[in-house]
Amino acid sequence: MLSAKMKRSLALCAILAFLTPAAGKAAFFRPDVRPGYGVTRRGWLSDYHAALKGTNLDTPVYYLEGRKPGATMLIIGGTHPREIAGHTAALMAIENAAVSEGRLIVIPALNASGYGLHDLSANIPRFHKIKCRSGHRLLPFGDRRVDKADQKMADPGQYRHQSGAIIPGSKGGDGAEMRNINRNYPGLADGTETQQVAYGVMELIRKEHVVLNIDMHEADTPTWYVMRQNGKTREGGRLAYMLVCNPKDAAMELGAEAVIDLSDRLGIKLKIEPSNPAFCGLSHLEIGNATSCLSFLFETPNPGQDDWRENPDVIRDTRYPLEHRVGLQWEVFQELANLYNEYNDQHLVIEGMPDYKTLMNQGVGAWLN
Ligand SMILES: [Zn+2]
Q1: What is the pTM assigned to this prediction?
Q2: In the predicted model, is pLDDT for residue 300 greater than 70?
């Protein structure tokens, strides 16, 4: 006879087995998005590449269209599902922004497949509770790559870009990077599943005549820390606060002016660098090279990406709270859009979004439905 306790634990195991996807079977994921009045239409990435339809790789696309025609710009969040500030900034735009002139297109969770997975690098929980206008809500946190189960081709020993090029350095050459969307631009219509997602984004940019795009990312924080291996101190990542710009003159000039203006206004030192042509497959490089779109990527500091931290808090870290990172993501995009408007006849005019200081005072939840 089984004791009541044993029966309970057997029942619990059965429930857990039901909830946890079996190895090799990818989990289904669709983002929790609560659109505001500014959203005029919703579509899918598969509208631009039909092969994605009905797969774990398809993902929703939101359109905020002004009455007055103008410039079309694109925000990409969730290329890497661990980088929670980009996804949250994209959500905030969908839930608050109102466009009076031009069009804003937002993809809040590009790597839908990676959101179906638990973070494989730091074992951070898949959902994070925050208080928002409707009560509590969960922000998702996934793995940076497309799920193995969603890509038919097994990872090769070494990453190789579709052009045949190999990225220098041991990390860049990891064969698993074949499932990193931000190593697989411009993508291929009949390529791997990851290349097809990148191809879908390229098709959207071409068909919608996107003039400027930003890919919102996060990196490890620039904090000094003690290394476990040898007890020596070292500074964290150099990428945080970096705006990476396609080397085209117009993108570099816009990026440089945005970084100078914002560093002055916010008192936070932002940095700029051109895409490195040796690192092929990255969005800012390949989108900017293949189209006339001015292409950018911005990195905020995420404590969840510091491998030296014991229990990182990706929402409420005292030095790098979510509002600091989401506020910066939005300010950088808004500044680039404002500068674009200054130098071009076609404009994108957005209302209804909080600036950095408002977000720091009120918190992210005050700006999510
Ligand atoms: Zn990233």
Answers
A1: 0.92
A2: yes
